[in-house]
Amino acid sequence: PGLDVLAKRAGLLYFGTAIDNVVLNDTRYTSIAFNRSEFGQVTPANGQKWMYIEPERNVFNYTMANEIVIPSKKAGQIRRCHNFIWHNQLPDWLTSKNYTKAELTSILENHIKHEATYFKNDCYAWDVVNEALNDDGTWRQDIWSNTFGGPEYIALAFKFARKYVSRNTRLYYNDYNIETVNNKSLAVVAMVKDFQKRGVPIDGVGLQAHFTVGRSPTYDQVSASIAQFNKLGLETALTELDVRVALPDTPAQQADQAKIYADSVKACVDARDCVGVTVWDFWDPVSWVPSTFPGNGDADLLDANFTRKPAYYAVSDILRDD
Ligand code: G3I
């Protein structure tokens, strides 16, 4: 049985993968990516981001997103939609001009309104805001926080999202380096508590889980971080799991990598309200890692020949054990 079949047996809602547009013409890739037994959930790795969805102001283009959303619907997979707001992959029209707070508010609402309405019945969850924090727990300086004079745009984005997504769609805050109890994850906890006090809608926290062999959090650490959000009544998910190694890869590193994958998946399975795990692509050649961290790579479950690595078997085993 595939990973999603095993994940469901272990009590998760899904085991999923990110899919990028660059390899959609490779049938070896697509026959796995759109196989519901392997991946019951899909995240478009790029196609739903602002620069592709609204390349010119108030001009919307769903082509790239649909290249993934449509076949995944045919395959019977669910989708985590990604994302409404991020500091990255914004269109030039938005970053090259100084908008006022009022203008940016209406730009934000208009963007969320169009994208949320277009994908109304297509998204199990939306990453409403992505990576708004620095690792020390302070707010990231970007076009949003600078124009709004702080993080209030985040609450606004969640309110707009609630207004336009379907009733069943879960609204997530998604970030990296929040997989342990640390300044950054504590800042997310504080944000959620503040939202709950003020009636700002939020349903979940996505822990990205971009890990590195040799310095990854342990099972206990990941479990403890997940628990702080479950305790607030939110669901959680590992939304972008991958485990990079320093190249060249070795059997010892592959074994370490396998353990980190398995421990991470187990932390989600064992948690009270962790709904699923998404790998940030499953095939080494399309991983985002080598271009961002030169000298690192081989972060995924399948190697260049589509051969299952020890990590694949470790995930499969941990799901079977449960
Ligand atoms: O769209 C152009 C295309 O026109 C051009 O031909 C091609 C040539 O290289 O580049 C394309 O843009 C690339 C884009 O992905 C689409 O493939 C960008 O150069 C590249 O930088 C971009 O990388 C994406 C990255 O986010 C941007 O920061 C990765 O694929 C994507 O996996 C990655 O995903 C992020 C999550 O959204 C948030 N969390 C971290 C995660 C990993 O960085």
UniProtKB/TrEMBL annotation:
Q: Which pathway or pathways does this protein act in?
A: Glycan degradation; xylan degradation
Which Enzyme Commission numbers does its entry carry? 3.2.1.8
Occurrences of domain GH10 (ranges): 6-318
If you read the UniProt record, what top EC class would you report for this enzyme, in one word?
Answer: hydrolase
Q: Which reaction does it catalyse?
A: Endohydrolysis of (1->4)-beta-D-xylosidic linkages in xylans
Q: Which Gene Ontology terms cover its molecular function? A: endo-1,4-beta-xylanase activity
* InterPro entries, A to Z: GH (IPR017853), GH10 (IPR044846), GH10_dom (IPR001000)
Print the keywords alphabetically: Carbohydrate metabolism, Glycosidase, Hydrolase, Polysaccharide degradation, Secreted, Signal, Xylan degradation
Can you supply one Gene Ontology CC term for this chain's record?
Answer: extracellular region
The compartments listed are: Secreted
Entry's transmembrane regions: none
Gene Ontology biological process terms in this record: xylan catabolic process
Q: What SUPFAM superfamilies does the record point to?
A: (Trans)glycosidases (SSF51445)
What is the similarity comment for this entry?
A: Belongs to the glycosyl hydrolase 10 (cellulase F) family.
Provide the protein name.
Beta-xylanase
Q: What is the lineage of its organism?
A: Eukaryota, Fungi, Dikarya, Ascomycota, Pezizomycotina
